[in-house]
């Protein structure tokens, strides 16, 4: 009896240990990034399964409606005296009015995009379109160019967003913090090399460069652990005595802690990323996006820049969406490019905001 209890308790401890390891990996930066990629990919397959069949059904209905209208107009032409233009026009107008109402209802309520049943191989709700839809849901952009029309698709969107939005915010925040730390040290390394440009090669200490790189990597590792343990740090900080703004800043920016005491490391610790550098980085990424979409879409440069800003600011009007011309070759590939540009851009914006926030805090302290 005791052996059974021991085996049960051992199994229970193993299950708890595996659960802890899984949660530790899930809430790590790498784990959250992998989870977000898997989650959006799952969303792409999910909405293909829920919505693609309905889109085919709507296209077939509209095809049959168009055939009926053509047949009705032909019968009117045969049965009525076409010399009496007023009578024929009145009857044809009634037929076209009914067809116009049918087109509006299918476009507004059922999501018909004007495509024919003969173009069934290029659906809106294929994997690329569903993947872009999933990303716009979890990032709260919501272009609105396609929306689920089935009851199951709408219900799935609700629960998909409930789980996906917190996961996306958590992942982008962590990724932005790590990117901010990496960019800060890269910027410091560039400034350090620039300051040594006019020093003779014989007087340079090449070992300091290697030590600097090692310090960068070690600090990034500590920063990753700092992010993963952020919740536990908040709990311990709530019980600690209240500190000044300067002490809070020093405890938050771990990289200000002294590394080995050399003149180079002290200079690196004093490196600050100016606000203008962060702004230029964001503008450069917007310009890069405008060049990419200018080459792939029939848009002007201003429209491409406008689209990139509306997308990365998560406004998402939906008046311009890449890859909506389904009959053009490569349109679906550019929808996936848009998805990658969007996710990386949101992390970059979070990084820039993190750098700007720290610089503003330093400015407040100096005043």
UniProtKB/TrEMBL annotation:
Write out the transmembrane intervals. Answer: 21-50, 122-144, 151-169, 273-293, 299-322, 334-356
- Specify the protein's topology with respect to the membrane: Multi-pass membrane protein
GO molecular-function annotation terms? outward rectifier potassium channel activity; potassium ion leak channel activity
Keywords for this protein = Ion channel, Ion transport, Membrane, Transmembrane, Transmembrane helix, Transport
Question: What are the residue boundaries of the Potassium channel domain, all occurrences included?
Answer: 122-179, 281-358
Q: Which InterPro entries match?
A: 2pore_dom_K_chnl (IPR003280), K_chnl_dom (IPR013099)
Matches recorded under Pfam families: Ion_trans_2
Q: Does the keyword Ion transport apply?
A: yes
Where does it reside? Answer: Membrane
- UniProt-listed Gene3D superfamilies: 1.10.287.70
Domain of life per record: Eukaryota
Q: Name one GO biological process term.
A: potassium ion transmembrane transport
Keyword match Metal-binding? no
Gene Ontology CC terms, in alphabetical order? plasma membrane
Which family does the record claim for this protein?
A: Belongs to the two pore domain potassium channel (TC 1.A.1.8) family.
UniProt name for this protein: Potassium channel domain-containing protein
Give the gene that encodes this protein: 20214711
